[in-house]
Design a protein that fits this description.
It contains 20 helices and 20 strands. It is of the alpha/beta class and 521 residues long. The chain has a 6-stranded mixed beta sheet, sandwiched between helices. Strands 16-17-18-13-19-20 form a 6-stranded mixed beta sheet, sandwiched between helices. A 4-stranded antiparallel beta sheet has the order 2-1-4-5, covered by helices on one side. It is globular, with a radius of gyration of 24 Å.
Length: 521
Amino acid sequence: MPDQLSELKHPVLKLRNITKIFPGVVANDKITFDCRSGEVHTLLGENGAGKSTLMNVLSGLYPPDEGEIFLRGKKVHFSNPSQAIQNGIGMVHQHFMLIQNHTVTENIILGTPQPFNLKLSKISNQIRELGKKYNLLVDPYKKIQDLTVGEQQRVEILKVLYRGAKILILDEPTAVLTPQESEALYKIIRKMIKEQYSIIFISHKMKEVTLLSDRITILSKGKAIATLTRGEASINQLASMMMGEAGQKEDKKNICPAFEKLGEKPVIKIKDICVEDWLGNQVLHNINMEIYKGEIAGLAGVSGNGQVALAEVLAGMLAFTKGIYEFDGKRIEQADVIKMSKLGVGYIPEDRKKFGIVERMSISYNFLMRDYTNSNFYNKFGVLKTKKIYKYAKSKMKEFDVRAASEKTAVGTLSGGNMQKMILARELSRYLRFLLACQPIRGLDINASGFIHEAILKAKNNGLAVLLISEDLDELINLSDRIYVICAGKIVGSLLKEEADIEKIGLMMTGVEVSSRENPS
């Protein structure tokens, strides 16, 4: 939609001088923001800049400490999300809020007033028609646990539409989507804009920000520093405004130096590895892979093609039904997490909140989770040396730029970038031979992504073997020495760094055979 038309619209929503303070942190500092009917207004900023906090205030999750909200010229105050949705404001969170063993219909109507003689079939038909209207196609009778990530996101959007929202807040909506699913979402957003919905879009992906946005408001350290119309600033300028010099240096940070095999034996060697799920269905089919000291091996594939199962096998979390697993030349007969951890396996899980941390525990005690047997942190009677633990955590926070009020802060209150840096610090600060990095920069801003990449490259250059699992093909090509491609639980080929390009990898991900120098399976 042309910017001139967007400029003629009057704001349907105004936020004036919104301030929100948490202990030790000013998350929002007198932020002024507005949104018009029929526009995409993007909030852009690094992790911890205050974007999600501002939208949580707008959607009724947090009360503002100062400031005012005006909706269609009328001052409003929301004490809970129900009041916000009653006024036509709905938020689709980055981490979906769905009940896995309930159906699509049950999730959508949960918490809404319904008659005593509830007719789920009638509501399911209404949901199906709503889905057809906006191309949010999903089976109303399916359980959430049986849906893909992209389908679950459609359910979240349908949920707020069903409840009458005309202003939609989309928080990092493409963070867990494949390129194809992201493109489908863009089409949905464009259709909604034509019908005069208002979209507040939170994203770190500069390309989609410039593609979708009518206006862009940049936040930095809790303050709104500028609002621009589309076309007023380039991607580099936006990155520079968002975080200064750090954004401009990102591309250079990510270039991976040439890899040389530093030893005869690979650190990781797996041959004909097969895995079955609990129903007996084969998830991995005869997987062959070698990863050497000082090498980053990438693994590309559309989500759900066996990447998670392979990572869990290598980390000792999942038993394989057939095949050979060798670590540093020694065969692993029965892998388990404790054994692999002692051998020097580090793991950055795909879902950092679910598997990487204990949210209510402090940063200090989260650091101990993978090093709890370290005698430096307890005395001969088994009593923890708390002062030593706090001192250690504080030093690691400084070394890995983990920003928080103190080392005693609960990890669950950190931004995504700081949470991921803490997990990386924990893994790289102990004895390691092999690092499993699963989606290490998913949902992170340029600054945090650059820091994570630089730390992984530094570890690789010090001799660490790394398996980088990512759905970001640019990330894989920039960092990896070699890229394996997985499709339907099979390694369909591999490409050396100099052979790899997005088009070739994309074809292989969909099962199309592409010639390469190596094909280990």
